[in-house]
Design brief:
Blueprint (H helix, E strand, L loop, with lengths): L2 H24 L13 H32 L6
Helix pairs in contact: 1-2
Length: 77
Amino acid sequence: MNFLGMQSLITIISHMFFILLSFWALKGIRIEKFIKKNNVGQARVLYLFLAITIGYPVSTFFIDLILNSQNLIFLFY
């Protein structure tokens, strides 16, 4: 497997992991107070969008942190 394929797979797994983690964390918030009654489907979509909005930048941060820490060795050459 080439490097770009492996990096893409790790990126997708990381994004999905952090989106699921943020979805799990959002379940601790009582957002039902702000949703109108009988709009369960819309509330679920809102949870999903909030999870993506939080999870994607967190995942990108950790991937960039790992890549930049690997490139620190070039500072000493």
